[in-house]
Every structure is written in structure tokens, then in C-alpha cells.
Amino acid sequence: MNANETGRYGFTIVVPVYNEQENLGRLAERLAGYLPQCSRKACVLLVDDGSTDGSAEEIRRICAERPDFYYVAFARNRGLTAALKAGFDRCCSPLVGYIDADLQTAPEDFERLLAEIDGTDLVIGIRTGRQDSLSKKLQSRIANGWRRMMTGDGAVDTGCPLKVFRTEVARQLPMFRGMHRFFPALVQLREGGSYRQVAVRAFPRTAGKSKYHLWNRLWAPFIDCFAYRWMKKRYTEYTVADENLAEE
């Protein structure tokens, strides 16, 4: 990846956006308020996933008005995993984070994750104080339990939309549709790969509509576990012992 503006920072916050026009103003204010407080020099990279509600225009306005805000816009909707991959691929800072546009987690809690990133590849949040409905909690519990059994990753809450990666690791992860649910397991595929978990706050959505329902909260993760198991058996990696190639 050629260097871009994010290379001037130590930390890039990737925000996938799909039809979140009602949330974008508040999102921009919260992130702009957090950046000066961040323990690393940080910027925001908004990835518009082919929105159809005016989010793309709002994103361009936000980035034109605020320093340290950048964007990537898809030609059409490709899904959360693709949006994250685009953010990781374009990130040139040493660290890259992820937060959802609905602000059901707090940007300020990135500090809890950044404090733990040294010596590991990934830090993920565990949401506390969630105010979900009983059916949503049950679906999440079943999906997380099934995933842990199938992958052995030990992760409590892979659906938490607050994560920090070492950028070089994030770029190397095999990314297929739905694989955003398996970041801890994918990190563990690497030789010596590791991750940590940190408690973060959770808040109810106050605007816009959730993109999650029974299919993508329960049935899709159920099926994707088999895709991960197939990939795990065929994953290849190597360690170079010696070479005479000089870097330019």
C-alpha cells in the first residue's frame, strides 16, 4: 500500500458507515472531541459502504470541515467485512481501530484498548451494561457459544464494535464475507498470534436503524463457523530463515 495521509498518525480509527445519516453529526462531534484526548496522534477514516440515504454526502461535508477526518466511498454496498478491509488496506499508521457509526460504544474507551496493545496483535472490547432485549441477548449468547466451540478462540464478545489492531496484522488477515466475527480466531492462526480482551461500556442506539436481525446475528455466524474451520485446515504460513534481498 502506498503511503497516504494516515501515515502521519500513530492511530487510525476506521468507521464503516451504511445508511447512518441520522447518526453522522453526533458521531463526528464525539470523534472530534476524542482525538485531542487520544494517547496516540489519531485520525478518523470513514468508509461509506454504498449508502443510499445521503450518508455519502454528509461524510464528504464532515471531512471537508474537520481536520484529521478522511473517507473512502464504495460504488455499491459490499458489507461490513469489505468496509473494514478497505479501511485496513488504506491505513498507514502503526495501529488501526474500529468503531461502529451508531455510537453504541464510546470512542473514549479506545484508551482502554490502546493501553493493552503493546505485546499483542489485537485488543477487543467486551461490552458491559448492555440494554438489549431478551431475544437479542439469547441470540448473541448462542452465537458466541457456538463460535467458541467451533474455533476455540476463547473470545467472549466478538460482536463488540470496538477493536484495536497492529496494522500489519490487520492487513494480513484472510478476509471473506462474515469474517469480521472471527478476528480473534484469525489472529490466532498466525504463528505466535495473540489477542487480549478489555471491558468497555455499551449504550443503546439513539438514532437510525440497526442492520442486524435473526439471520445475520445467529444463522450467518452459524454457517460461517464451518467456513472458518475449512480455512483453518488449509491455512499456510512460513518463517524466513535467511535471504539476500535488500530493501530499497
Question: What is the structure about, briefly put?
Answer:
It contains eight helices and seven strands.
Description:
The chain has 248 residues and is of the alpha/beta class. It has a single domain, classed as Spore Coat Polysaccharide Biosynthesis Protein SpsA, Chain A (Alpha-Beta Complex), CATH 3.90.550. Helices cover 38% and strands 17% of the residues. The protein has 8 helices and 7 strands. The chain has helices at 21-34, 55-65, 80-90, 110-114, 134-151, 167-172, 183-189, 214-234, and strands spanning 11-17, 42-48, 69-73, 95-99, 122-128, 162-166, 195-201. It has a 7-stranded mixed sheet with strand order 3-2-1-4-6-5-7, with helices on both faces. The longest helix has 21 residues, at 214-234. The protein is globular. The model has no long low-confidence stretch (mean pLDDT 87).
Strand line-up of the largest beta sheet: 3-2-1-4-6-5-7
What is the radius of gyration? 18 Å
How far apart, in Å, are the first and last alpha carbons? Answer: 15 Å
Could you say what the CATH topology is called? Spore Coat Polysaccharide Biosynthesis Protein SpsA, Chain A
| Shape field | globular
Mean pLDDT: 87
| CATH-level-2 architecture | Alpha-Beta Complex
Keywords summarizing the entry:
38% helix, alpha/beta, 248 residues, seven-stranded mixed sheet, Spore Coat Polysaccharide Biosynthesis Protein SpsA, Chain A, globular
Write the layout of secondary structure elements.
Blueprint: E1 11-17, H1 21-34, E2 42-48, H2 55-65, E3 69-73, H3 80-90, E4 95-99, H4 110-114, E5 122-128, H5 134-151, E6 162-166, H6 167-172, H7 183-189, E7 195-201, H8 214-234
Parallel strand pairs: 1-2, 1-4, 2-3, 5-7
Antiparallel strand pairs: 4-6, 5-6
Helix pairs in contact: 1-2, 5-8
